[in-house]
Each structure stands twice: as C-alpha cells, then as structure tokens.
Amino acid sequence: MVRILRHLFMPYFLVKRYFPRHVLAGIERAIGESEAVHLGEIRFAVEAGLDFWPLMRGQSARERALEVFSQLRVWDTEHNSGVLIYLLLADRDVEIVADRGIHAKVGDAQWQRISRMMEEAFRQGRFEQGVLAGIGEISALLLQHFPAGEVNPDELPDRPVVL
C-alpha cells in the first residue's frame, strides 16, 4: 500500500526539479560524445511514478524498464548493442536493460554494479552526477566490446526521455 501511495502522489514536477532542461541537455551531450567512440547506443529514460493499473498488478521497476526498452526500440541496433538506463523516481530504482549483443559480453553483475552506484548518487541528491557517471561506466564497457569503426552511425536518438 505504501508503494502505491508513493507512486500515485509522486509529483511530476520533481522530474523537472531533478532533471531541468540544462541537465537533460548535458545528459544528451554526454550520450552523443560517448557514442562517438563505440558502436553502442545509450538511451536514458526517467519516470516519476507508475500509473494506477500497473501498480495494482504489482509491476516492478524492472518490468517497466523492459517495456520502455521495447517502446524506445533500444533493441533495434545493428550490433545488438543498445543499453537503456531507466530511472523510476518513486522507487529511486535504476534499471539497466542491455540488448543481447552487449549483455552477452558484460553480464548482470556489471549492470547491477552501475545501477547501485547511480542509486547511491541519487540518495545523496546528486542526480546529474549519478547519470553522467553511469553513462561513463557504460561507455567504457561499450568501448571495450564494441569500439567504433570507420562507419559509426547514430542509430537512436541521444535525447533523454521523460515519461
């Protein structure tokens, strides 16, 4: 019941407070700079809280992240190297969903480590720094496993998504 109330009364303006335009622009720049050196694609999505019916069904942040991964077509890259960073503010939960190409090379432990690092920054109120640090960590993994070649198309938008 507490979770349901937290989600239903999570004000949308908190997304704008923690992620104002200049912060979202900085995240977009960081993603663009990152993608210039590897063949991966990074998306960042933030959501204040879940809607009533998903909450009543007990939808987890992970389940919602998988939905968003699909909706944003993060899986739709040539090298199967798309990565979604999903933040559910009401739960202060970060979920990283990676396409099969990069996930096979990295595995759950690394994604969990990056998620926990970001969540710790968010607990300290350092939202911008937490996201940028997460992007940096993911970029290092993508560079290691999918370094850029001569042709490096930008397959997905770099702009953060506020749901």
UniProtKB/TrEMBL annotation:
The TPM domain extends over 27-140
Task: Write one Pfam family the protein is assigned to.
Answer: TPM_phosphatase
Going by the entry's taxonomy, the superkingdom of the source organism is recorded as Bacteria
Which InterPro entries does the UniProt record give? Answer: TPM_dom
Q: What is this protein called?
A: Membrane protein
Q: Native species of this protein? A: Sulfurimicrobium lacus
Lineage of source species: Bacteria, Pseudomonadati, Pseudomonadota, Betaproteobacteria, Nitrosomonadales
